[in-house]
Amino acid sequence: MTVISPKPARTPWPGSPSNSNLIFNYQLSITKMVWLEYFGVITGLLYLFLEIKQHKGMWVVGFLTSLVYVFVFLSAKIYADMGLQTYYVGISIYGFYQWTRKKHEIHTENDSLPSDRILYTHLSLPLFVGIIGTLAVVFAILWYLLHQFTDSPIPVGDAFTTSVGIVATWMLARRIIEHWIFWVIVNLVSVYLYYLRGLYPTMLLYFCYATLAIVGYYNWRKKGEEF
Questions:
Q1: Could you report the per-residue pLDDT of 129-165, keeping only the tens digit for each?
Q2: Do residues 216 and 48 make contact, with C-beta atoms less than 8 angstroms apart?
Q3: Which of 87, 109, 115, 226 has the fewest CB atoms in 10 Å of its CB?
């Protein structure tokens, strides 16, 4: 009778990670991402406060917030919003330049205008039509890319918030007051999307965004001046 001895336990290769190490490293990365998300929430609220006040420092804070959320959304597999945050990083530089140049031009023409005056312009009908057309095209492209080439669990919502966010940020850089209305819509939709993905601090942030966007609109109307 042949006795088959049990196989000896497999010894891991030197330097190879054990299962416990892999689990520990995964938990550590999750913890870091949570803290990064909380940091983004704080800077995001500061950004919105500065936006309501029309302080150009908002673009610097927005740059930092967007950079943080590139990694947060990558981790949550919200790819279009991750791309949107990358877009925000670039347009923060453009917005800072636009606000600095435009306000300098206006104050050069009118020396009696206070330096902290809120300035805005309205959305014209031709521009509104162009924006709606652009939204439709960008949404369709993003939805197709997310649906066909990624594992995004929310391609429709992700594409919608991203396309509207792109347009709203451009409108903000041009000081178009109706950008606040766009933000109310996109932020309320984002609250639901981030709830689905378990990003609860970010969900709270975007609920604050939606509420303060209403405050921002009335603040610009009340204290601002059309140029």
A1: 999 999 999 999 999 999 999 888 889 998 999 899 9
A2: yes
A3: 115
Which residue carries 């999750």 as its tokens? 30
Alpha-carbon distance of 211 to 218, in angstroms, equals 12
Tell me, letter by letter, the H, E, C secondary structure of the chain: CCCCCCCCCCCCCCCCCCHHHHHHHHHHHHHHHHHHHHHHHHHHHHHHHHHHCCCCHHHHHHHHHHHHHHHHHHHCCCHHHHHHHHHHHHHHHHHHHHHHHHHHHHHHHCCCCCCCCEEEECCCHHHHHHHHHHHHHHHHHHHHHHHHHCCCCCHHHHHHHHHHHHHHHHHHHCCECCHHHHHHHHHHHHHHHHHHCCCHHHHHHHHHHHHHHHHHHHHHHHHEEEC
Q: What's the rounded Cα separation, in Å, for the pair 58 and 45? A: 10
| Residue in 143, 141, 137, 138 with CA at minimum distance from that of residue 156 | 143
Supply the angle between the helices 19-52 and 57-75 in degrees, to the nearest 10: 150
